[in-house]
């Protein structure tokens, strides 16, 4: 399944969650299939805007994309945990739970430091 087709399933599943969510950044791979319009129409009162972070086709070679560092940094934090360093889990729910545990630990360490 293409990522952009799977994104519809994810957004449909979490439609009632994250009521404060207003903006979602997505990679250029999510372009097409009118996904941005579909996400905008998903909620009536509090709209969600899907903003694509695309690469400039005029620039050759490696280019740091805006906001891409946020994703890569988060993957780096998650990769420090042994069970998340590789895809060991059989069920996606298990991986999701381990991500929640890892991020809770990160937030607790930050709060304890203050």
| Continuous helix count | 5
Kindly name the structural category. Answer: mainly alpha
The largest sheet has its strands arranged as 1-2
- Strand-residue fraction? 5-15%
Whole-number mean pLDDT: 80
Measure the end-to-end span.
44 Å
Overall number of structural domains: 2
Query: Can you tell me the residue ranges where pLDDT is under 50 for at least 5 consecutive residues?
Result: none
What is the rounded Rg? 17 Å
What share of residues is helical? 40-55%
Query: Sheet bearing the most strands, described?
Result: 2 strands, parallel
Q: What overall form do the CA principal axes indicate?
A: globular
Name its key features:
mainly alpha, 2 domains, two-stranded parallel ribbon
Question: How would you describe this protein?
Answer:
By secondary structure, the protein is mainly α. The chain folds into two domains: 56 residues, no CATH class; 48 residues, no CATH class. 48% of the residues lie in helices and 9% in strands. The chain contains five helices and two strands; from the N terminus they run αβαβααα. The protein has a two-stranded parallel sheet with strand order 1-2. β1, α2 and β2 form a beta-alpha-beta unit. It starts with a helix and ends with a helix. The relative contact order is 0.10. The model has no long low-confidence stretch (mean pLDDT 80).
């Amino acid at each position: 399944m293409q990522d952009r087709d799977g994104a519809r399933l994810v957004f449909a599943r979490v439609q009632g969650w994250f009521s404060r969510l207003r903006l979602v950044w997505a990679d250029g791979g999510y372009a097409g299939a009118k996904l941005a319009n579909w996400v905008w129409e998903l909620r009536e009162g509090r709209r969600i805007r899907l903003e694509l972070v695309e690469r400039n086709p005029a620039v050759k070679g490696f280019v740091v994309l805006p906001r891409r560092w946020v994703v890569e940094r988060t993957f780096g934090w998650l990769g420090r945990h042994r069970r998340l360093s590789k895809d060991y889990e059989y069920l996606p729910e298990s991986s999701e739970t381990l991500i929640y545990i890892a991020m809770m630990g990160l937030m607790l360490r930050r709060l304890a430091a203050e």
